Amino acid sequence: MRDKDNSTAVSANSTVPTREVVLVVFDGVETLDVAAPASAFDKASALVPGAYHVTLASPQGGRITTNAGFAMADTQALQTCNGPIDTLVVAGGDETALRTAILEQGVGAWIAGAAPRIRRVASICTGAFALAAAGLLDQRNATTHWNACDLLRTLFPHTTVHHDRIYVQDGPVWTSAGVTTCLDLTLALIEADLGRPVAMQIARNLALFMLRGETQPQISPALQAQADASSRLRELLA
Hints:
Blueprint: E1 19-24, H1 31-47, E2 52-58, E3 62-65, E4 71-77, E5 85-90, H2 95-104, H3 107-114, E6 118-123, H4 128-133, E7 141-142, H5 149-155, E8 160-161, E9 167-170, E10 173-176, H6 181-194, H7 196-205, H8 221-228, H9 231-237
Parallel strand pairs: 1-2, 1-5, 2-4, 5-6, 6-10, 7-8
Antiparallel strand pairs: 3-4, 9-10
Helix pairs in contact: 1-6, 1-7, 6-7
């Protein structure tokens, strides 16, 4: 895997070479882990024409069903993704579904084989287990959903797991915490490629409360304050 970053800051009215993004999905994948990054990359391409081309790829190709029961049709089979890949993003999902994808359907082995032709890999939530199974997290810093950090640390002791970070970059490998942090991760990838103004504009377009950096805690202090507050105080905090 290429351990480098060819990112370039550009203005919103610039054109750049198209970056090929492969988003790995599977039956039982977390819906938001797919929809949110795809939407953010699409908005980046609207601001910077041709910035990204996103392909949904699954172990067998064709139709997959998310953990919420939504069908995603016409995914590309991983084995047919033979060309250069700029960015590989592996979504997370339910434990049983993820284990099946990694071990029985060969996602981990495919990632390991494809890594030498990928500039940058990323995982969302429990997708980190797929990167770890492929050997890409050995001797690296990483994170995953706070509820799965201990398991990742136990299964892959050569990985330094950060329990309280929303995403972690270690060279060309990026990992993120649970579910909604996929937007923080994707915007960080876009910022690395296209510059902060583009990422900020997408954040505004998505009506995000703020653009969070990687050292932000997984469990929001504001959310915890709301959980601990009385009903009257919660109205003030809302």
